[in-house]
Sequence to fold (380 residues):
Amino acid sequence: MIGPSWQPGRSRGLIVAIAGIAGLVSTTLVMAPAAIFADGTVLAASSGCFEDGAAGGSAAGGGAAVQAAVSQAARNSIPANYLTLFRSIGAEYNVPWVILAGIGKVESDDGQSDLPGVHSGANAFGAAGPMQIGIGGAAGNQWGGAPVHPASERVDGVATDATGNGIASVYDPADAIAGAAKYLLEHGLLANVDQAIFAYNQLESYVQAVLRWAGIYARGGYTVSPVPPASTQCLPGVGQAPNATAAAAIAYAEQQIGKPYQWGGTGPDSFDCSGLVMMAYRAAGIGIPRTSQQQWAWGPEVSPGQVEPGDLVFFAGADGTPESPGHVGLVIGGGLMIEAYATGFPIRIAPYGGRDPVGFTRPWAHKGVSAGHLRLGGPT
Fold:
């Protein structure tokens, strides 16, 4: 449920279990060669180099949004009209459709629930519609204005007329899904998916339930195209690396941009965060530990003022702590990193500032790396 007044530990009373998930049979979504940025912008193979760390063209503003294909489990679980809406609205707002679908499943079983507030009125906490958006009460009026009002009416909320019928209705699936997409973006989905989902309903069990469904839905097929050399030359990192080893690690990571996130993935078609950096350094001739916690402990640590391309940047993440971080990215220069972020997001370029990194390490400087393993000489 959308609503800032929710407190951790407060019961939702609505997590719908779906049984009988069938075997996963995939369709494909072809992704054009592109560098994906955390704000949704895309550097296409046909585009020129970007300036000031930004790419030309935005997925939300008309460019191609990178979305997961549809697994057979999604087709079996989600009503066809809702599946179409999750995918189209996700592409329009540059929000992974699998996250929207996960919320829809947990909140109302994609509008199939007959519990109070789903089709009319509100539940005991003031949430309404298939996406359970606050219209009053403890949830607050996050929709803005009346639950159903003319779209021309200016309101302070996420109310949306996604159907174009002149009415913004919290009970209309399209309007509600678009409103949920707006709310997630306003709460930092592109920088911290767990935080944004937690803002939607402040229960860790809720976050895990949504991400579980998103993971099931994201197991469709992908056709992956690596970023072509002409485009990677436009990215920061390789030309600034302190040595050829760091440059090789960055070059490998850049070639994975646009591929899907998969928990436990170590390539070649999908990765999780630590799997990506492990394989990047393996490509450079250095073996580092598998998990972000092990990589952090392996070190050696470097101070924030001494960070160079090729260093690793660590975050507490949703499943870690500052002492045992759960997320890692590869620094490429200019305050940017390459990261395998979360379910529903392709491997991307993102700024690491403003996300409270817990520290940095420099794998190539580890005491166990001999001079014979270190590629000397910077990139040309």
